[in-house]
Amino acid sequence: MMVSGRYASLSGLQAYGKRLQNNANNIANMNTSGFKRGRVLLSEEKPQGVGTHVEKVEMSGPQTMEETGQGKRMVLQSNVDLTEELPEMMLNQQALLANIRSLQAVDEMEKNVLDLKA
């Protein structure tokens, strides 16, 4: 079965949009005690496209001693690392832009076909 480039591009836009949302969520919560970063896994979708699944990274963040209402306690920090999130975010942005360009190319080809038929 032939699948349009439009569907493949839209599927990629949705998948990489979800990855960028996840990066933003991880960065926004990096100072939240006990927060576990999320990771978006991509999978092949039939007949052609990209599916996504979000999972939590169970690796614990560092523990620090903090003053609480009950005295000093060890508090588990977030496991978000900006040195991982920012490069991943840049790659996801480039993938998103590539899918936008692909969608624009499909639109241009369809326009040319319609012009030829007119």
Write up this protein.
The structure is a single chain. The chain contains 2 helices and 4 strands, in the order αββββα. The chain has helices spanning 5-28, 82-117; strands spanning 38-44, 50-56, 63-68, 71-76. Strand 3 (63-68) and strand 4 (71-76) form a beta hairpin. Helix 1 (5-28) runs antiparallel to helix 2. The longest helix has 36 residues, at 82-117. The radius of gyration is 21 Å and the shape is elongated. The two termini are 28 Å apart.
Give a summary of the structure in a few sentences.
With 118 residues, this protein is of the alpha+beta class. The chain contains two helices and four strands, in the order H-E-E-E-E-H. It has one domain (5-63, 74-117).
Question: Main traits of this protein?
Answer:
118 residues, alpha+beta, two-stranded antiparallel sheet, 2 helices, 4 strands
Strand-pairing-aware structural class:
alpha+beta
Overall tally of structural domains? 1
Structural shape: elongated
Proportion of residues in β-strands: 15-25%
Helix-strand pattern: HEEEEH
N-to-C span: 28 Å
Oligomer: single chain
Q: How much helix is in the residues? A: 40-55%
The major β-sheet equals: 2 strands, antiparallel
What is the arithmetic mean of pLDDT?
86
Number of strands: 4
Cα-based radius of gyration, to the nearest Å: 21 Å
- Residue ranges: pLDDT <50 for 5 or more in a row? none
Number of helices: 2
Widest sheet: strand ordering = 1-2
